[in-house]
Amino acid sequence: MLGIAAALVLVVLVAEFRAIMPALLILFVAPLSAGGAFLLLLVTGTELNVSSAMGLILLVGLVVKNGIVLMDFAARQHAEGTSWRESLVAAGGRRFRPIMMTTLCTLAGLLPLAFGLGAGAELQRPLALAVIGGLSLSTLLVLYVLPALFLLVRRGENSHS
């Protein structure tokens, strides 16, 4: 099922960007973000279960959304004649606030669940911890690693041309 989900997300990303490389790079960042989720689950002594697995699926959606926000802006800048480097720097500057607002609002909304507050929160605690850990790492990955990887791949493509 995970493979089918990844393939469907890839199809949507390729349709959005009309190119496979940004889509593949965004999907590459998503599993790296899971490192933050696993680390927070480990630190808090929380088991990996169905709830935390659901959090990982939610995390992939958030990573992809943030990647689209950044890369779409950069692609539009590049289409207007700006170099990829300048486009990515501009995208990082212009999209930093919306990405951070989404991240912080999501984290704030999940904190009561992470602390086990409220009715049924204990059951959803692993989901909240997985998303909080993964989203914290993914925000850095999307804002800094994704553009750097994109430039490295572009440089590699240009050197083979």
Explain how this protein is built.
The protein has 161 residues and is mostly helical. It has a single domain (29-159), classed as Up-down Bundle (Multidrug efflux transporter AcrB transmembrane fold), CATH 1.20.1640.10. The chain is 88% helix and 0% strand. The chain has 5 helices and no strands. The chain has helices at residues 2-17, 20-44, 50-79, 84-114, 121-159. Helix 1 (2-17) runs parallel beside helix 3 and helix 3 (50-79) packs antiparallel against helix 4 (84-114). The protein starts with a helix and ends with a helix. The model has no long low-confidence stretch (mean pLDDT 91).
Give the secondary structure arrangement, pairings included.
Layout: H1 2-17, H2 20-44, H3 50-79, H4 84-114, H5 121-159
Helix pairs in contact: 1-2, 1-3, 2-3, 2-5, 3-4, 3-5, 4-5
Briefly summarize what is shown.
This protein is mainly alpha-helical and 161 residues long. 88% of the residues lie in helices and 0% in strands.
Tally of individual domains: 1
CATH topology: Multidrug efflux transporter AcrB transmembrane fold
Please state the average pLDDT score: 91
Give the strand content: under 5%
SSE order: HHHHH
The percent range for helix content is over 70%
CATH superfamily: Multidrug efflux transporter AcrB transmembrane domain
- Catalogue the unreliable spans: none
Number of helices: 5
- Using only C-alpha atoms, the radius of gyration works out to 17 Å
> How would you sum up the major sheet?
none
At CATH's second level, what is the architecture?
Up-down Bundle
SS content category: mainly alpha
State the CATH class: Mainly Alpha
Distance between the termini: 37 Å
How many strand elements? 0
Overall body shape: elongated
